[in-house]
């Protein structure tokens, strides 16, 4: 997402290995293992009205991701939760984004880094919609990527690990260069998987929601939240294999993710879709669940 201010040159504070440090002083060595060998895991969290949505679940996933990569976080989950809240308070974030990241340090340089120190940093900043409001109103455009989600036997697909996002960057850049907002990624079998940083849902006009089985990509926290919200409203949600040749039969498509929230999709390759009632309902339900609707209403009232 484009920004007018570099992320290394900002006012504020970053929580770094147990201490709150000035933003510009939060640095790591160029020979850190996490930079060279992708031995890093991270989270993305949203703040609504001063509250981090699903904080404990995000911290639990961060710790689980670290474990999958063979190391433990240097702080307990409760300590990480408190640190996330503290950094939001230090930066006066009421509505924004939180990014915890844990990585292997610079003690060893090579594929093996068994004794490298594990570092943990947490940053936060104001962040509006992931996609532009204009694109969201009519639905964003996706282009199917040539890169595919790997098999669980070839990569730690259930960790939120930085290395897994390299093909996402390649896919998203390629799509943007052709006038699309994002990419649709298939898995190694040719099945529909997800977008570059969000899960995907389809409606085929029967009042039900269909979403790919999360067997080789993250079963997103927002994905699970939306499934729960839909079922609470009596909407059937089917997790199943979805093939690319089914896409043209869909009447509604939307993405879910911490950054994307619930974002309508208006086009995938040559197929177009409407932003209809089911999508609008899930957008509204998610906004209520996160507290976004209340936060927006409070700001509007204060502005009057």
Descriptors for this entry?
alpha+beta; about 25% strand; globular; about 300 residues; 2 domains; D-amino Acid Aminotransferase, Chain A, domain 1; seven-stranded mixed beta sheet; single chain; D-amino Acid Aminotransferase, Chain A, domain 2
Brief summary:
With 304 residues, the protein is α+β, with helices and mostly antiparallel strands.
What would your notes on this structure say?
With 304 residues, the protein is of the alpha+beta class. It folds into two domains: 113 residues, Aminotransferase class 4, branched-chain amino acid transferase, N-terminal domain (D-amino Acid Aminotransferase, Chain A, domain 1), CATH 3.30.470.10; 160 residues, D-amino Acid Aminotransferase, Chain A, domain 2 (Alpha-Beta Barrel). Strands 1, 2, 3, 4, 5, 6 and 7 form a seven-stranded antiparallel β-sheet that branches.
